[in-house]
TrEMBL record:
Protein name per UniProt: ATP/GTP-binding protein
Lineage top rank: taxon: Bacteria
Lineage, highest ranks first: Bacteria, Bacillati, Actinomycetota, Actinomycetes, Kitasatosporales
Alphabetized InterPro entries for the sequence: P-loop_NTPase (IPR027417)
Amino acid sequence: MAGKDLRALFASNDRDLDVADAFTNREAQWGAVASALAAQLHTVTARGFDVQDVEAPRDNVVCFHGTGGIGKSTLARRIEASLADRDRPAQWPPLQLAARVLPIRIDLARAAGADLERVVLSLRLAVTVLQRPMPAFDLAFARYWEQAHPGEDLQDYLHRTSSAFARFADATSLPEQLKDTLADVAQAVAVPGAVVGAAARLASAAARAVRERRSTVRALSGCARLADLLEAEPDTELLSYLPHLLAYDLAQVHGKEPVLPVVLLDTFEDTGDRIHRDLERYLQRVVWLMPNVLFLVSGRNRLQWGDQDVVGQLDWTGPAAWPGLAGAGRRQLLVGDFTAADSEDYLARRLTVAGRPLIEANIRAQLAARSAGLPLYLDLAVMRYLEVRRTRTPSSEDFDMDFAALIARTMADLTPEERDALRAAALFEEFSIALVTAAAGLPQEAAAARLVQRPFVDQDLAGQWRYHLHRAVRTALLGTADTSDDAWSERDWHNAAARAFTALGTEWKQGVPGDRRLLVACLRQGLALARDHRLDLDWLEHGAFAYTADSVWEPLTPPAALTTGPSTDQGPVALLTELLSALARRQHEPRPRTADRLQAVVDAHRLPPALQDMALYYLAKVQRDLGRTAASAAGMAAVVDGAGRYAAPARRGLAHLARIQGDFPTALEMAQHLGWEGRHHRVEGDIWWANGEFTRAAGAFRSARTEAEQHRVQGEAATAQALRALVLGFADPDRAGDEIDLAEQLLRPLVLRASGFNAALAALAAQAGSAPTEQGDLPGRIAAVRAQIQAAGLEPLTAQADLVLVLHHAVRSDHTAAAEQVERMQQQAPPGGDHAYLVHIAAFLADQPLPDGVLPVRWLASQDTVRDRWSRLVERRRTA
C-alpha cells in the first residue's frame, strides 16, 4: 500500500471502510530501472568518461509510456520511494549498487505549474542534500536569477513557493550555499564585497579569471565552457544550458561511493505536443547535458528523440544520438495493462473492511474482464461501487457500463483531427492509417499517423492491418455517450461507418488478386460494419462469391457487436453473415447442423437472387452428404433452372447424384458438358475410379489439380490431389506415397475435412494387407478414421473407409473377414440405393457374390469387366 486513496475516503461515511491507493506488480519496470542504474554506474565510473563531452551518444534516459490511467505516475512515485529506500514493494528486489542513489521526481503536469526554471531549480535543490559546493552552476545561476528576478531574494522566493519545493528537505539551505559560493569566488577573483546582488559583476570577473587561467580559480578553470556561459545573455536559453555546469560540479564530488542522481520526469506529455516542442527541447537539452544523471521519463507517448523525422525540432535526434530510444528501442518501455489476476488483486486490496475485500468476488471478476487490464477503468469502477453502495447493495448489473471519464482522459491531449481519427479507428477491429483516414473523412493521413503512435493503439505485426485500439478504450468509445465539444452525432457515426465500409471494399478490390487473407479480413470487418450500422450489401456480395470460389473455408464469423445500438434483424446482411459462417463451420460441425442453418437462410427469401442460389446450392450439397438425395436433386435442379452463377456447379451436383445412384453412363454424359466451372475432370475421375479404370481416374484427377492450379483455386487443387492419392492408394501403393505427401502439403493451410479424410484413407489403403505396426493394427486405425468421419456427418465417406477395410482383408486372403465386412456394408447402406456401387465394389474386392437385396448398377462396361478390374487389383497387391 502506498497510502490512502483520498477520493475514495471522502466517497463514503463508513468509518470501517479502509481505502488504500493499491499498487500492483510492475516487476518488469523495476527490473528495467535496476538494469539501467547498473549500466549508468558502469558508464560514469569507466575510465575515459568525460562529463563535458557533448558529442558522444547518450544512453542515460529510460521512457515509460502508456495510455492515460495505466498507472505511470503511481509507478514513478513508487520508483522514487524505492530508490530512496522507503516503502519498497515486497516483490521488488533491493538494488545491489555500490553507489549513493539520489532520486529526484519532478511532476511536469500543467496543474503543477512546472516550467524550465522550476525544473532547473529542483535539480539544484535536490543536490543540496550532498552538502557540497556547486560553484560553476551557482555562479552562473546567481547571475541568471539577478536578471530574471530583479530585486527578489531567492530565499524569499523559496519561502513564497514552499509548496512547490517542500519535497526537498534541505531546500532552505540553498540560499546560504549560493552566498558561500559567491563569497569564495569573489575572494578568488579579488572582487571585494561581491554578493548575490552583484552577481553579474562577479560573473564577469570570474569569466576573465578563467580565461586567463589564474591559479586562484583552479576549481572553476576545469569547466571548459564556463566562461562562455558566464558571458552569455542571462535568459531562458542560457538557463537551459546551466545543467551542464551542474553536471560538471557533480562530477567533482568525491566520496566513499559515487553519487548517482536519478531524475524522474513525470507527466511528460504536458510539456507540449508534436508541433509545439519548446519546453521539450529545453528538457531534452537538460538530459543531454547531464550524462552522469539517469533520467526516467514517464508519459503517454514514447520519446521521439531517436527518430530522424524530428530533426530541427530538437537539438539532438536520431538513433546515432539516442541508440536506446530509436523506434521501440530497449529504453522505450510500455507500461502495459494489468493481467486479469492483477486486476482482481487491485480491486480486492483497494477497498477493505476488517482486512477483507469489500467488492464481491463475482463483481471483481466481471470488472477485471471488462477493464481489459486498464487501471483507469478499475479506478473508475471503484468509485462507481462506492456511489451505488450509498443507496443499496451493488450488483453485477450496476457495472454493465463504460465510463465517459475514460474517453475524456484518452482524448485529453489529442488535436480535433486526432479525435476524429480515434473515433473512426473505433469502428475497426484492426486498421491501417489509410483506413482510419478514409473513415474519418480526413484530407490527409497526418492525424492518423500521429494517432497510431499513441500508447492506447497497440500493434500486431501478424495481423492483416497492424493497428488496433485498446479494447477498453474501443468499447468505451462505441458504447459511452461522448461529452466532448466535438462529439459525433448518430448521423456522424453512420456516415463514418459507411466510409469505413467503402474503404474496406476498395482495399480488397485494389489488392493483389487472389489474396485470401485480405479478402477474409475485409469480409469479417465489412460484415460487422454493415450489420451494426444497417448498411447495404454492396461489395459484400462479390466478396462472398470470391470467398466460396476457392473452396478454402477460413473461419469467417465477424467480430461481435460492441455497441448497444439497434438490434440486428434477419435482413440481407445478417443472412449473408449466417450463410458464410455456416459454410465455414461445416468443416467443424455436424452436417445436420449445417443443413438446418442453411435451410433457415433459404427459407427467409431475403437475399439477392445470386446469393439465394448460393445458399440453395450449398444446402443441396450438404443434403447429398447426408443421403437426402431427393432433396439434393431438387435443390440442384432449381439452381440450374435459374441459370445464374451457380448453375455450372449445380450441374456438377446433378452428375454426382447420378453417380451416387449408380447411373454411370448418365453421369459421364453430364460430366463431358460441365467444363472447368463444373469441375469436369474431377467428376470424370470419380466415375472412372468406381468403374475400375484406375489409370484414367488418376489422370483425370491430375488434370483437375493442374486446371485448379492454373486458375489459382487452392481448395479445388487440394481436393483433386487427395482423390488422386486415394486412387493410387488402392491401385498402386508404390506410387501413392509421393501423391499422399503432396495432398497433405496442399491441405495443410486449408480447412477441408472431407478431402483430409480422403488423404487419410489413401494412406491406409496404401498399407492394406500390412502387418500391425507401432501405430497399431490397420483395422483399428481404419475404425478410428471411420469414427471421425461419422462424427463429422460425412456419411458417404464411411462406406469408403469400409471399402479400405475390405481391401485389407482381401489382400491378406482373409476371406471370412472380407465377406462379413461386405455384408455389414449392405446392411448399413442408405435406403433408396444411394452408393450401392460401393457395396458392389466391396464384393468385387472380396471375390464374393453380390449380397442379397443390393440394387443393380449401370456400369460403363459389363459388370463382369468391372469385377475383373477390381479383382486383379487385389491380386497385384498380394504379389507385390
